[in-house]
Amino acid sequence: MAFEMVPLGDSALLVTCAEPKLDWVALGHRIRALPECLDAVPAYRSLTLHFASTLPDPEGRFGPALGVAIAALLKHPPKPTDAAQHILPVCYHPSLAPDLDAVARHCGLTTDEVIARHSAPLYRVAFLGFAPGFPFLTGLDPSLNAPRHATPRQSVRAGSVGIAGNQTGIYPAASPGGWQLIGCCPLPLIHFNQDPPTRLQPGDQLRLEPITLARFHELLEAQP
């Protein structure tokens, strides 16, 4: 399977491949094991390799290993059961879900149907991006596809659960954001004094458990 490597400065390579079934998270795990690789960061359709700027001929060093790893993963994809499993509580109360009604109208559903369909899937963390610890989750019910806001909010509270197109995610910290907000998780997703600092990692599997507003505040107040 053909793939491309594009230099990103003098200490990184962007790897792309047209094969839609390639598991980029698993590829990152394999390449990260090479002693020359400082990190391998997956995205939806790419992998960024980081290495020391003094490494000679990085394309020649990583190319053969990438070819072998890609061929092996396409022949023997990783088993989902090997992934870490998580359950996160989410409150879909209107006070924490400013866009829930709008998403329901856009999708031709009731708010209860949106909640049921959003909390039903087993999601996979495709990658972390946009902000530290922000999980981009695949597995969203296609009936919940809703566009980003044309104008992002200047501030979104930490823990907010949003939808943007065919993906869903959770804001780990307060930040600007343009996703449709339909709920909120009371548990922190990031601790900068821990290793690793993020609760979720690429490749992890996740279920969202609906909770009441009272339970949301109980869990929120219990956090250190």
UniProtKB/TrEMBL annotation:
UniProt keyword terms in alphabetical order: ATP-binding, Hydrolase, Nucleotide-binding
Q: Name one GO molecular function term.
A: ATP binding
Keyword match Transit peptide: no
Q: Which domain of life is it from?
A: Bacteria
Record domain Carboxyltransferase: where: 3-200
- The answer to keyword Hydrolase applying to this record is yes
Task: Fetch the SMART domains from UniProt.
Answer: AHS1
Q: Which NCBIfam families match?
A: 5-oxoprolinase subunit PxpB (TIGR00370)
PANTHER family with a match to the protein in the record:
5-OXOPROLINASE SUBUNIT B
Protein name per Swiss-Prot or TrEMBL: Allophanate hydrolase subunit 1
| Taxonomic lineage of the native organism | Bacteria, Pseudomonadati, Pseudomonadota, Gammaproteobacteria, Alteromonadales
